[in-house]
Amino acid sequence: MANPIIPGIPQTEQDLLYSKLNAYNQGRAPYKEAGAYLVVLPRPEHPQYTLWVYSPLPERQSIFYICDLSTDIHETLRMASTLCFYSPRSLLLVEHNAKRMQSKGDDIIPIGKYRGHFLHEILRIDPAYLAWIAFKFQPRIPKQERFVQIAKIYHSVYLDIQRRKTYQTTGGHFLGKEGEKVKNLTLTVLSVRLEDNPYKTQLKGTTPYFYVCQVLKLRDSVGNFVSIRINARTASRKSCRLPAVEHAYQTGEIMAIASARIARTYLIGSTKYTRLTHVKLQGAAK
């Protein structure tokens, strides 16, 4: 699927945004299997970016509107990625398709207190009623069968949103027990702190040499929190400053780990952290 041209920003900035989006989607299910969330570009009659859900299940139209986002692409992607972070679905940026992205009337509620309203409206104001339609309402005609099928798609969107709230409340889970080995992790860097290794700091004549450690806080795609210490292999002349030859991790960067060992598990408030050691990055020289 080709990346559309994002209006109003230079090519270099577009390349960076798509690179971040690719990193965000790493490890998620293929859209032909699980569906996808679609961020749709603005159009003349609608200046805001919009969020839609694509499902491979319905036989006919399979793209359904969720909500408006922002007129700014950066704020739009922040909003969409936050909302969908704990979903297995990928997040894709696409152009508006007038033929496939329009209501055919089969997502309008035909009965009850919300008669005449769209299912995406009920997703926001009464998800319990949406669940009733999806799993309790008995279709009597083929059109109503499709209506129920669409309700189930919107209900899956609600579950994705609830999954986010659940993980944010519980602070995630431990990745395993101390001493266990874990493999194939994709982590997003949340914060970086630099500190000197006091055991390796030394003086050569009157010149101090510092070995700086990067203390990383990270999170996986389902909200589990991880901490890793990356020790510099070369010395720095200044305290808490990495030498240029060392890789300096940045907030938002993706770390792909081939294998690591769980050193310990611990709590900070209600948040569960897993500390990893013996980290081997994917693609690193052996």
Describe the structure.
This is Exodeoxyribonuclease X-like C-terminal domain-containing protein. It holds the Pfam family ExoX-like_C. Residues 112-137 form the Exodeoxyribonuclease X-like C-terminal domain. The protein has 286 residues and is α+β, with helices and mostly antiparallel strands. It has 2 domains: 11-168, no CATH class; 180-281, OB fold (Dihydrolipoamide Acetyltransferase, E2P). It is 27% helix and 29% strand. Strands 5-8-9-11-10 form a 5-stranded mixed beta barrel. Strand 6 (202-204) and strand 7 form a beta hairpin. The chain is elongated and about 85 Å long.
Q: Topology of this protein?
A:
Blueprint (H helix, E strand, L loop, with lengths): L10 H15 L5 H4 L1 E5 L9 E5 L8 E6 L4 H12 L5 E5 L24 H7 L1 H9 L6 H29 L10 E16 L5 E3 L2 E3 L2 E8 L5 E7 L22 E15 L2 E11 L5
Parallel strand pairs: 1-4, 9-11
Antiparallel strand pairs: 1-2, 2-3, 5-8, 5-10, 6-7, 8-9, 10-11
